[in-house]
Design brief:
Blueprint lengths: L1 E6 L4 E6 L5 E7 L4 H24 L8 E6 L5 H14 L4 E5 L1 H7 L6 E6 L3 E6 L5 E5 L11 H17 L6 H10 L4 H10 L1 H17 L3 H24 L7 E6 L7 H14 L3 E4 L5 H20 L1
Parallel strand pairs: 1-4, 4-5, 6-9, 9-10
Antiparallel strand pairs: 1-2, 2-3, 6-7, 7-8
Helix pairs in contact: 1-2, 3-10, 4-7, 4-8, 5-7, 6-7, 7-8, 8-9
Length: 308
């Protein structure tokens, strides 16, 4: 049996899969993006999700042969190598493979030309062209990108509300809603909360913005329109790089923002279709965690074949 993990800026999911590719159990824990929670925090989340999944499957670590972890924030060789070493220390004697969460999305799409848009705490897009060539855009983190992400929306909404407060203007209905739903008395307390843990504040604000937009709040709708443009821009870049303008291809939306707001989903779909005229919307053939486990089985089989 193997463990497959999908880790991002909000949660980590793990599955236990056997050699017939049957999922035996699942586990879930907190964020495991090392660029956001540190390498120690990422490792702790990976271990917790794995332990929960193994406990639910009623299997011991001795029965696990391999671990594949697809983690946001592991795109750079240094980050990937460090996480691999840490996981190997926690799972001694097991085959360990570390990749990015974007690699998992392609694993979960099968074959053929495809673009997967990830819209969650962060944002990115990854794709495969007609000739099998692969490319990715975005995924650089909140300091250098993540346009259209939940973090980006929350941060933009907060900056706008704070500027209104600085000018002595009345709080907008959306700003009042932020304070109420975060359980915060004023903007001074809000700033303290942000500086103590922006990842705990900004992504959560997307849900508030989405709910307000559904009710017709124009400020919220403007924020979501800007986000949809940013996400569509990622896809447009990949369409160009993978030379898919004149070809049909599968377009998959993935991530925690998808399916949270009818208004935002429709808005994003409109922008995407305007950008990618021949795209056909579809879904992943499996979850990212299942894709990680499937990758672990495939890689261990390849290693065993090479050793023979």
């Amino acid at each position: 049996m193997v463990l497959g993990l999908d880790g991002g800026g909000t949660k980590t999911e793990c599955v236990v899969m056997d050699e017939t590719r049957t999922v035996r159990a699942r586990g879930r824990s907190g964020p495991s993006n090392p660029m956001r929670v540190g390498f120690g925090g990422a490792l702790a989340a990976v271990c917790e999700a794995s332990q929960i999944a193994m406990r639910n499957a009623k299997v011991s670590l001795a029965e696990i042969s391999a671990v594949c972890a697809g983690l946001a924030g592991a795109a750079q060789p240094e980050s990937e190598g460090r996480m691999k070493k840490l996981i190997e220390e926690e799972f001694p004697g097991k085959f360990v493979h570390v990749c990015t969460d974007l690699d998992l999305t392609l694993e979960a799409t099968g074959s053929g030309p495809v673009i997967v848009l990830i819209a969650g705490t962060g944002s990115a897009a990854v794709g495969r062209g007609c000739g099998g060539q692969m490319a990715r855009v975005g995924g650089h983190g909140f300091l250098l990108g993540d346009e259209g992400s939940a973090y980006d929306i929350g941060q933009r909404a907060a900056i706008e509300a704070l500027r209104r407060a600085d000018r002595g203007e009345p709080e907008s209905a959306l700003a009042k809603r932020f304070l109420h739903e975060l359980g915060i008395a004023d903007w001074h307390e809000f700033q303290l909360r942000v500086y103590n843990g922006p990842d705990e504040v900004f992504p959560r604000m997307f849900r508030t913005v989405a709910a307000a937009a559904e009710e017709g709040d124009e400020t919220a709708r403007r924020l979501l329109r800007d986000a949809a443009e940013g996400l569509a821009g990622l896809v447009a870049d990949l369409v160009e790089r993978l030379q898919l303008k004149a070809h049909k291809f599968l377009l998959v939306k993935s991530g925690g923002m998808v399916g949270r707001s009818t208004y935002f989903d429709q808005l994003t779909d409109e922008r995407l279709l305007a950008t990618a005229l021949h795209a056909e919307f579809g879904a992943l053939a499996m979850t990212e965690a299942e894709a990680a486990a499937s990758m672990a089985l495939r890689l261990t089989t390849d290693v065993a074949r090479e050793e023979k």
